[in-house]
Amino acid sequence: MTSAIVILLDGIAYGMVLFIISVGLTVTMGLMRVVNLAHGGFAMAGGYLAAVMVVAGVPFIVAVIAATAAAGLLGALCELTIFRPLYRKGELAQVLMTFGLTFVMIAALTAMFGTDIKRLPVPDWLGGLVDLGIRPYPTYRLFLIAVGLILALALWLIIDRSLYGAKLRAAVDNPRIARAVGIDVNKLFTITFVGGCALAGFGGIVGAEMLPLEPFYALRYLVLFLVVVAVGGHGSFKGSFFAALTLGIIDTAGKYIWPEISAFIMFTLVFVLLLWRPYGLIPPKAAA
Amino acid sequence: MTDIPDKPQAAALARSSRFNVLWHAVPWIVAIAFYYTAGGFLSLGTSILVMILLTLSLDLALGYAGIITLGHAAFFGFGAYGAALFSLHVNTDPVLGLLVATAATAVFAALTGMLILHTQGITLLMLTLAISVLLYEAANRAYKITGGDDGLQFEMGPVLGLFRFDLWGKTAYLYALAVLLVWFIVAWRMVQSPFGRSLDGIRQSPPRMKAIGTPVWWRLVAIYSISAAMAGTAGALSAQTTRFVGLNTLGILISGIAVVMLVLGGTRRLYGAFLGAAIYVVVQDYAAKVNPFYWMFVIGALLMATVLFLENGLMGIMDKVGTLARDQLRRVFGQPSQP
Hints:
Chain A is mainly α and 288 residues long. Chain A has 13 helices and 2 strands. A two-stranded antiparallel ribbon of chain A has the order 1-2. The two termini of chain B are 31 Å apart. Chain B has a two-stranded antiparallel ribbon. In chain B, helix 3 packs parallel to helix 8 (170-192). Chain B has 15 helices and 2 strands. In chain B, 76% of the residues lie in helices and 1% in strands. Classes of the chains: A mainly alpha (288), B mainly alpha (339). The interface between A and B is large, with 46 and 42 residues.
C-alpha cells in the first residue's frame, strides 16, 4: 500500500513535468497544424541556461525566472523567423524544418555549454524530505505536483474564462471561421507559441531531475512529448493534462514493477489507443 | 493540393521517358569506376550503396505516396535481423537469405500498414514511431534470439555459390551494387506506371482520388509494403556485407538519417537518393571524426536551408544548372529552343 502511494505520487510528479513541457506543443499542433519536432529544444534550452546560472551562483528562483523568460524569447525569435513561413507548407516541410532546428539547437547548446550532463542543484528548502505519515517523501516532488496543479489551474482560468481563451478555443476549433469573424489568429498564435515555449523551458528546468539535461535531450524525450499531444488530442488542454498524468503514472509504475518491459508496455498502450481513437482522448471538434 | 498538374514533375517525367541513356548511365559508371579506384575505401562505398537503397525506399513511401513516416528503421532492422537469423539457423546462402529477409519484411509491413494507414498526419507519424520503438525494445529484450546489446555475428556462404566475401570487400561491393540495380529498375518502372501516378494523386489529395474511384487505402498499403521490402533488403545487405547485425539498425536515428539523405538529394527524383546518401555518408565520415556536434549543426542548417530555399534538393539545383547550360548551348549553336 505504502509503495503504491509512492508510485502514484512519483507518477503524478512525472506527469506534471510532461504536462508543463507538452502543453505548448499541443497548441502548435492543434491550432496551427504545424508538426513541431523542435519543442524539446526549448525545454532543453531553458534547463541548460538555468543549470549554468545556478552553478555560477545565481539564486535558484532568479535563475528559473530568467531561463524561463529566455526560452520564451527564443520561442518568439523562432516563431517570427522560422515557423511563419512553415504554416503554408506541407507536413513534410514542417517535419524537416523543425527536425533541422532541433539539430541546430543541440549543436549550439553543446558548443556553448559542453557535452557533459548538466546537473541542476535545488536549494536547501526544496532538497529535503517531508514526513507524509507513511514514510518520508522528497519535498521536491511534492513541489512539482503543487506547481503543476497551480499551472494547470491558471491555464484553465485563462483558456476557459478569459476573452483570450475564448478566441484561442475558437481558433483551434476552426481557424478559417475564426479569421472570418475578425480574430487575428496569427497574433494569437505568436502569443500562445511564446507562452508555450516559456512553459517548455520552465518544465525543462523543474523536470531536470526526471529528464536529465544531456546533449540529446531534445531528441530523446521528444517522443514522450509527442505521445502526450497525440494521446491527449491535438489542441486539447484538458486532454493533454490527463494524458500527461496517465502516461506519467503508467510509465512510473511500469519502471517500478516490471522495469525490463516498461517501455514496451507504454508504447503498446499508446499504439492501441491511437488505433482506437486516432484523434486522441479528447478529439478536436473539427476532426471528430 | 492544386488542380494544376505538378508541372516540374510532368516535365521530369517527359524527360526520363525519352530515356536519356547518357544520364542514366552516369551514376552506374561512377559506381563501377569507384570499384577500381577506391582501394581501402571500398567498404565505405558498400555502406553508401546500402544507404542509397534505404533512401530510395523512403522516397517511394514518403516522396511519392506522401506517407509521413519516422519508422523506416523498423524495416531496415527487420531485414537485417531476418538475414542474420536465416544465415545462423537455416542456410548461409546470401541470395536466398536476402530474398527471405525481404519477403518477411514485406509481410510485416503489410500487416502493420493495414493497421496504421487509416490514420494520417501526426497520428500516423506517432504510430510509425511507436512500431519502431516497440520493435527495438522487443529485439533488446529477446537477447536469446537477437543477442541483445551484443548483436549477432554470423557467417556467409559465397554469392551464387561462386563468389566468396573477401577481406577487401570487393564481392560485398559488387553484390550490393547488383542488388541496388535490380531494385532501382523496379522502382523506376513503378513510379512511371499508372500505379505510381495514382500515388502522386494520393499524395496531393486523398479525398479526390477516392472520389474518382481509386482504392486509396489499398494503394497506400501496397506502396508501404513495397517500400518496406526495399528497406528490408537494404538492412539485409548491411548485415550480410558486414556479417554483423546490432540494435542500432533498429534505432530511430536511422529513420532520421534516411529522411535527411532523401531531402538533401531531392524527393521524388530516385537519383536524388543516390546524391543525398553519397554526400551524407562521405561528409559524415570526415566531419564526425572532427566533432560530432559540429556535424549536427551542419546537417540541421542544411535541412532548414533545403526547406526554405530549394524545395527539390540538390537534384533541383542540378536541374537548374542543366537547363541553364542547355539554353546557353542552344543560343551559341542557334538551335530551336523547343522541338
